[in-house]
Amino acid sequence: MRQAAEDIVLDIRGQICPACLMITLRELNSNKEKLKNEKARLVVKTDHRDATRTIPSAAFAMGYRVSVLQRDKYYEIAMEYEK
To answer: pLDDT for 40-72, tens place per residue?
Structure first.
């Protein structure tokens, strides 16, 4: 993934699914224009392992490229709009 102009960081550590997915979808929708114009990417920090499956699956279905990185004590899910 290339670096977008801005990272919108959503730290949802401590949340569990389905809240992780719902919060992320709300953030994707509220920043839709920035994301679609490639001015930003959404970076979600989560410590809930199930979210590393549910969030990427939903974001991919919405047209986003997704990468998941495992950090020391959490996961980082980055989403950018796919043209």
So the answer is: 999 999 999 999 999 999 999 999 999 999 999
CATH value of 6-81 in 3.10.20.90, 3.40.50.300, 3.90.1300.10, 3.30.110.40: 3.30.110.40
Residue 80 pairs in a beta bridge with 65
Residues with Cβ within 8 Å of 6's Cβ and at least 6 positions away in sequence, in order, are 34, 39, 40, 41
pTM of the model: 0.91
Question: What gap in Å lies between CA 59 and CA 79, rounded to an integer?
Answer: 7
Q: Could you tell me the pLDDT band of residue 82, with boundaries at 50, 70 and 90? A: confident
Q: Return the residue matching tokens 């920035």.
A: 34
